[in-house]
Design goal:
Blueprint lengths: L7 E5 L3 H12 L4 E5 L2 H10 L4 E5 L7 H11 L5 E5 L4 H10 L3 E4 L4 H16 L1 H5 L14 H14 L5 E4 L6 H10 L8 E5 L5 H9 E2 L11 E2 L1 H4 L4 E5 L6 H13 L1 E2 L8 E2 L3 E6 L3 H6 L5 H7 L2 E4 L10 H15 L9 H8 L6 H15 L28 H22 L4 H8 L3 H10 L16
Parallel strand pairs: 1-2, 1-3, 3-4, 4-5, 6-13, 6-14, 7-10, 10-13
Antiparallel strand pairs: 8-9, 11-12
Helix pairs in contact: 2-3, 7-8, 14-16, 17-18, 18-19
Length: 463
């Protein structure tokens, strides 16, 4: 019985010392290693050899790594490519990841980390045929017609097959967790755990134990060992929602995990290796938080290897009718009800609503409407929504995009004011009425300059 063929790895770098180190490291784990000191030499080897993985430097004299990447894929379209990059050329590597590269490693690199990543990439490559058998994106596009969301979903499909950390940006309720789940489902880790950590609602004192776990006796009420969510996500995906809310101490611990891929339970001395993909999300402006000193810059760059911004619902109103139909059909099945029809006037009404709570508000409002409607027809009076200006259908459409944006902002400001008034100016209650987070309503109040002094507008934290 013949032994399986050794994987062939092509290493490309103009630094011969690095070539020698990589060749020795990879040969030690029984790989066949080819080396090239430049792009042209690498292309000649690719034409004569069936290479399983190419590792290339980004910056090289003559043909650079990006040009080599493009040319190599003309020869071997399915070949995985890993980039070696200095800190200053990380943006180039990120650009390559978006174009289809599978991984990158910063110089100086750790030899064990290199071997581990190479083994992971080759393992995923061997299952690429199975990945390519995934259902096409057509089902994801059901009800979605806006160019912005179609472009986002196509980008998700490309990024999902790599293993880079992803930062999701967007207002509360736009569907960041759904996008995170899509990244997991359409990637090589989809058969492994998908663990969600809500950093916004978990008290700071408990978050460390939730993430890292603890050992018995490490603190009061720690009556037995507990596995943390990071450890539970091993081989799978860890989704950190509302990452902007974590404390400085937690930022330091999370950064160390991202760098070392190891954790230590609270009260323990032993380190535990964990291999998981990290996807994080926030509705805060992390760049501003970094500038203000509230968020570590090094952690920010570790989290946002690739950044995806999810547009608010008011910027993709053409999707509202399709989403509404899908939600109503789903709720009818869930509640074992006969089909409910949405008449054109209700769809027009929905399309003009300001949607401060985005897709979450649409979903919740329609679920209430399905339960309350009569005779199988959903009227606007059945919907559990608040803050819509009266009779929006009587308003003439704006003459240009600028006027449209102004009108939307005025509608959103009016919706927030009405919710505040209805809640007695308790921000927490107003946020609940709108279906948005407390952090989001704080941001909107500041954005629209709503007069909300301590005497007249309470946060609700002590209620």
């Amino acid at each position: 019985m013949s032994s399986p063929a050794k994987p062939i790895v092509l290493v490309v770098d103009d630094d011969r010392d690095i070539l020698a180190v990589l060749e020795a490291r990879l040969a030690s784990i029984d790989y066949r290693v080819l080396t090239a000191s430049g792009g042209e030499e690498a292309l000649k080897l690719l034409k004569s050899e069936s290479v399983d993985l190419m590792i290339t430097d980004v910056k090289m004299p003559g043909m650079g790594g990006m040009d080599l990447f493009s040319a190599a894929h003309q020869i071997h379209p399915g070949m995985p490519v890993m980039f070696l990059t200095a800190y200053g050329t990380i943006p180039d590597a990120v650009k390559a990841m978006k174009a289809g590269a599978v991984e990158y490693l910063t110089k100086p690199f750790n030899g064990r980390e290199l071997v581990s990543k190479v083994q992971e990439v080759l393992k995923k490559s061997s299952s690429k045929q199975h990945l390519d058998s995934l259902e096409p994106l057509g089902d994801i596009f059901r009800g979605v017609i806006s160019p912005a969301m179609r472009q986002l979903y196509e980008l998700v499909d490309r990024i999902a097959r790599s293993d880079v950390n992803v930062l999701l940006l967007g207002e509360s309720g736009v569907g960041k967790e759904r996008i995170a789940h899509l990244l997991h489902q359409r990637g090589p880790r989809r058969e492994q755990p998908f663990m969600v950590v809500d950093c916004g609602s978990t008290p700071g004192g408990l978050l460390e134990s939730e993430l890292f776990g603890h050992v018995r006796g490490s603190f009061t009420h720690a009556i037995k060992d507990k596995k943390g969510l990071i450890e539970a996500a091993d081989k799978g995906t860890l989704f950190l929602d509302e990452i902007g809310n974590i404390s400085h101490e937690m930022q330091v611990r999370l950064l160390r995990f991202l760098e070392d891929k190891k954790i230590r339970r609270v009260g323990d001395l032993k380190e535990i290796p964990v291999n998981c993909r990290v996807i994080s999300a926030t509705n805060a402006d992390l760049r501003e938080e970094v500038a203000l000193g509230n968020f570590r810059e090094d952690l920010y760059y570790r989290l946002r290897v690739v950044t995806l911004k999810i547009p608010p619902l008011r910027e993709r109103r053409e999707d509202i009718p399709g989403l509404a139909q899908n939600f109503v059909e789903t709720f009818c099945k869930t509640h074992h009800m006969p089909p409910v029809r949405i008449p054109p006037e209700t769809l027009r009404w929905l399309s003009q609503y300001p949607w401060p709570g985005n897709v979450r508000e649409l979903k919740n409002g329609l679920e209430g409407g399905v339960v309350l409607c009569r005779d199988g027809v959903l009227h606007k009076s059945d919907l559990c929504l608040s803050g819509l200006p009266e009779e929006p259908e009587k308003k003439q459409p704006p003459s240009n995009a600028e006027a449209s944006a102004l009108s939307l902002e005025e509608s959103e400001r009016a919706a927030i004011l009405r919710a505040l008034q209805q809640a007695g100016f308790v921000q927490k209650e107003a946020a609940n009425l709108l279906g948005i987070s407390r952090r989001a309503i704080h941001y909107k109040i500041k954005k629209y300059g709503i007069n909300c002094t301590k005497r007249s507008c309470k946060s609700g934290e002590d209620d």
